[in-house]
C-alpha cells in the first residue's frame, strides 16, 4: 500500500470515531437535528423515486 492510502485511511477512521464520539456526547441535540431533517430527507427521496419512475 502507498503511504497516501494509509494516511487517508487513518484520517478517515479518526474522523469516523470523532463523529461517533460527538453523537454520543450530544445525543439529545443529535435527536433534535434528526427529527427536523428526517421529514425533508424522506420527502426528497420520495420525489427522486417518483422522478426515476417516470424517466424514460
Keyword list:
single chain; 56 residues; mainly alpha; flat
Structural features, described:
With 56 residues, the protein is mainly alpha-helical. It has one domain (3-53). It has 2 helices and no strands. The chain is flat and about 45 Å long. It starts with a helix and ends with a helix. The relative contact order is 0.06.
Short description:
This protein has 56 residues and is mainly alpha-helical.
The helix count comes to 2
pLDDT under 50 segments (min length 5)? none
Shape by Cα distribution: flat
Helical coverage, percent range: over 70%
Q: Give the distance, in angstroms, between the N- and C-terminal Cα atoms.
A: 43 Å
Largest sheet report: none
Radius of gyration: 18 Å
User: Total strand count, please?
Assistant: 0
- What string, H for helix and E for strand, traces the elements in order? HH
How much of the sequence is in beta strands?
Answer: under 5%
Number of domains: 1
- What would the average pLDDT be, to the nearest integer? 90
Architecture blueprint of SSEs:
Elements: H1 3-25, H2 27-53
Amino acid at each position: 500500500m502507498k503511504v497516501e492510502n494509509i494516511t487517508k485511511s487513518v484520517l478517515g477512521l479518526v474522523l469516523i470515531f470523532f463523529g461517533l464520539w460527538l453523537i454520543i456526547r450530544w445525543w439529545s441535540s443529535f435527536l433534535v437535528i434528526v427529527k427536523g431533517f428526517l421529514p425533508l430527507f424522506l420527502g426528497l427521496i420520495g420525489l427522486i423515486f417518483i422522478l426515476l419512475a417516470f424517466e424514460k
